[in-house]
Structure formats: structure tokens, C-alpha cells
Design goal:
alpha/beta, Rossmann fold, six-stranded mixed beta sheet, 10 helices
């Protein structure tokens, strides 16, 4: 990749970002399509100053990660429907005149599942009640129509609050989901686990360095289901290993990561993302990140 005075700059902003796979993924895509652009990582302490920098330096686009996905909304000029619904942004497009905000996490989550199974009329269990669970549940009802979603989390107040926020947001768009979302504690999971079709871990449990942990034990994992973990480091989480032992079809966190990145790339460039190349770059470089 040759960098010159005409090279466009894209970036990821967050804190921390030193272990991000995004530079590998996006730079491989730019190289494949012979786009004169480079993608770099900026560990940001002051978001307001970072946004000023994006505008001043003419940075063409940015990925936004923890802890700025919500805070950044006050600094953008326009926001997409899905990002507005979720209340979180992971993508910035700089037109030169405006900063446009979008959320491709939702698309990546949904498409990762959709590539393996139908969503319509299925029962889905989402483990966790944080930002990723929020984006995941929004995506299921925004892009599709599951029969039922079980929101499984330990904190009663957090899971009930999340349900209310999701219901309220969809009501504004004229869609009722209140009777399709059910909040459960882990003590209730065993009663309904066998009727669920799809299980998704949206928590950081099992992420490096805590690689021996899992949100479910072997006894808590049902047989022959579709199981996805959004954690992509390590590649094979303990959650997925347990699922495979129970003859479930597993979906790696890599799938969501690559698909949300591909959607970002297309929003920035108006070109079809070379998904296979992006996935290959992830797989090639994942061990260097995992071991660093």
C-alpha cells in the first residue's frame, strides 16, 4: 500500500483500541479494490477534540467503539433510523459538509445469524443486557420478525429497563414488540431452554484473557440449536466449544465483526466490500492480536 498526498484517511476511535482488528480488515479491502486510502487506530481521551480533528483533517470516515457509541450522537449532523432507534452509533461518514452517523453493528448481528438460519417465527435467546444486546434485539425486529425474544440477564432492573426502551422506540415507529420480548433470570433459563431455536451471547464473558469462562455451563446448553457468540477473541470461545459438544451449529464472533465492517466500508466508499478478503485478513492476523 503506497501512501501519498492524495491518500484518504479512515480511522477507528475509542479507548482502548490497540488490539483492534479493524485496521487489518479495512486496509485489506482498500488494497484489494485499489482504493488510495488507509485506515488507522486512534486511542481517544477527549471525544469532542477527536471530532474536531476528524473535521479539520478531512478524515473521510470513522468507526466508533467503546466508550463513545452513545456520546458521539451529540456531535453529528444527521443520524440514520436504525442508529436513532438503538441510541448508539458505530459509523461516521464525513461528507465534507456534514458528519453522518449510522449503526452497522445491528446489520452485522442480524446478517451473521441470517446467513445460517431463518429468523422469522423463531424463538431467540439473547444473553446480556448491555449495548450489544440492545443492538442485537433491535436488529432482529428492525430487519425481521422473530416469534419471541428472551432477554436473559442477571440484573432484573437492567433487563426490564432495556425492554421498556426497546418497546418505546419501536412504538415511535409504529411497530409493537412488547408481547414478543420476555425478560428472564438465569434461574429461569432451564425451564425454557429446549424450546429456544437460537442462542446468542452478547456479554464479554469468555473474552481474552478470561478464556475459560462461559455464560452457560454444559448442563445449561440445549442440544442441536443455532448458537452465536459475538466475542471474537478467542476465535473458539468456551461458550462455542460447549455448544459444539452439544451438537449445536455455531457462529463465530468473527462473522458479525466482518459483516459490520463490510457495511461500514460500503457506506464510506459506495463500493461492494470484498468480504472474503476481509475475512481472510482477520484469520491471518488474529493470532498476532490474540497473543499480544
Amino acid at each position: 500500500m503506497k501512501i501519498n498526498a492524495s491518500t484518504d484517511v479512515y480511522c477507528i476511535i475509542g479507548n482502548p483500541v490497540r488490539h483492534s482488528f479493524s485496521p487489518f480488515i479495512h486496509n485489506a479491502a482498500f488494497k484489494k479494490l485499489k482504493i488510495n486510502a488507509v485506515y488507522v487506530a486512534f486511542e481517544v481521551k477527549n471525544l469532542k477534540e477527536a471530532i474536531r480533528g476528524i473535521k479539520s483533517l478531512g478524515i473521510k470516515g470513522a468507526s466508533v467503539t467503546i466508550p463513545f457509541k452513545t456520546e458521539i450522537i451529540e456531535y453529528v449532523d444527521e443520524i440514520s433510523d436504525i442508529a436513532n432507534l438503538i441510541g448508539a452509533v458505530n459509523t461516521i461518514i464525513n461528507t465534507g459538509e456534514k458528519l453522518l452517523a449510522d449503526n452497522t453493528d445491528a446489520f452485522g448481528f442480524y446478517q451473521a445469524l441470517k446467513n445460517y438460519t431463518q429468523i422469522s417465527d423463531k424463538k431467540v435467546a439473547i444473553f446480556g443486557s448491555g449495548g450489544s444486546a440492545r443492538a442485537g434485539i433491535f436488529s432482529l425486529f428492525y430487519y425481521d420478525n422473530p416469534m419471541r425474544v428472551y432477554l436473559v440477564a442477571r440484573n432484573v432492573n437492567t433487563r426490564e429497563k432495556l425492554k421498556k426502551e426497546i418497546v418505546r422506540s419501536f412504538n415511535r415507529f409504529g411497530k409493537s414488540v412488547e408481547n414478543k420480548i420476555f425478560c428472564l433470570g438465569f434461574e429461569e433459563w432451564g425451564k425454557i431452554k429446549d424450546e429456544v431455536d437460537i442462542l446468542v451471547n452478547t456479554t464479554p464473558v469468555g473474552m481474552t484473557p478470561d478464556i475459560n469462562s462461559s455464560i452457560l455451563t454444559k448442563e445449561g446448553m440445549p442440544q442441536n440449536k443455532i448458537v452465536m457468540d459475538i466475542v471474537y477473541n478467542p476465535f473458539y470461545t468456551t461458550f462455542l466449544k460447549i455448544a459444539k459438544e452439544k451438537e449445536c451449529r455455531i457462529i463465530h464472533g468473527m462473522d458479525m465483526l466482518i459483516l459490520q465492517a463490510a457495511k461500514q466500508f460500503e457506506l464510506w466508499t459506495n463500493r461492494t466490500a470484498p468480504v472474503k478478503v476481509m475475512r481472510k485478513s482477520f484469520l491471518k492476523n488474529r493470532r498476532s492480536i490474540e497473543n499480544s
